[in-house]
Amino acid sequence: MPAKKTTETQTQAHSIDVQTETCAPEKTTGPDDFKSLGISTNAHVTPVWVIGTYDKAGRADAMTAAWAGVANSAPASIFVAIRPGRYTYENIMERREFTVCIPSEEYAKHADYLGIESGRETDKFAAAGLTPVRAGKTNAPYVKEFPMYLACKLKDRMNLGSHFVIIGEIMDVCVQEKMLDADGKVDLEKMKPLVYAPDSMKYFGVGDEIGRAFNIGKEFKKQKSDD
Questions:
Q1: How far apart are CA 171 and CA 113, in angstroms?
Q2: CA–CA distance, 198 with 97 (Å, rounded to integer)
Q3: How would residue 168 be classed by pLDDT, with cut points 50, 70 and 90?
Q4: Which of 1, 91, 120, 191 would you label with 8, given CA atoms 20 to 30 Å apart?
């Protein structure tokens, strides 16, 4: 079904005029010098997300993405950057709904495969031995074997050059019950999600818990008040 013109107007690419000033880099000395890696995408680490869509014919497809994250709190939204030539991009523009599926460590090979094969010619779900299931709140498939998914609808998009940034409003978040702790929160030690290192192009686990957010840093706030 072709997209409605009124909806398309809401998702036109934005442009912002930005003035930049080029300065010579400041030279530093000492034992803790930083080494410049130049302009790159080496922002460590990135998530490993699998974007689930239906194509025009209603066939389920999935693509692995790493340039992604939380975009907004109210309404709850995520972003994912996708090249416009990707089949997933076409599917999102056609259907305007998608899922964000989060694989666990045991499905690292599956997630990697979904990022190196094109869905135009291949049924990637069948090839990887994965099961597509229609999400309850959106007309998009999630991966049954993965422990968590977010159901999203297209909210906006922005052309940044090589990629379009897709903004998805979160309609629902679903997780396997066995991945929850006693308080009903997602237990990362149980779920074991993947992260991605852009420069080495390797997958890693999330590691051990370090401490509670908005809590472990309070000691510095106390020192400041004492001063």
A1: 27
A2: 27
A3: very high
A4: 120
pLDDT attached to residue 138: 96
Tokens for 85, please give them: 């030539």
Contact of 129 with 111, CB cutoff 8 Å: no
The share of the chain scoring above pLDDT 90, in percent, equals: 79
DSSP labels for 201-226?
TEEEE--S----TTTTTHHHHHHHHH
CA neighbor of 126 nearest in space, from 113, 108, 135: 113
Burial of 30 (0-12, 13-18, 19+ CB in 10 A): exposed
Residue with tokens 């996708």: 82
Residue range 2-26: mean pLDDT, rounded: 49
Q: If pLDDT is split at 50, 70 and 90, which confidence band does 177 have? A: very high
Tokens 């998530």 map to which residue? 47
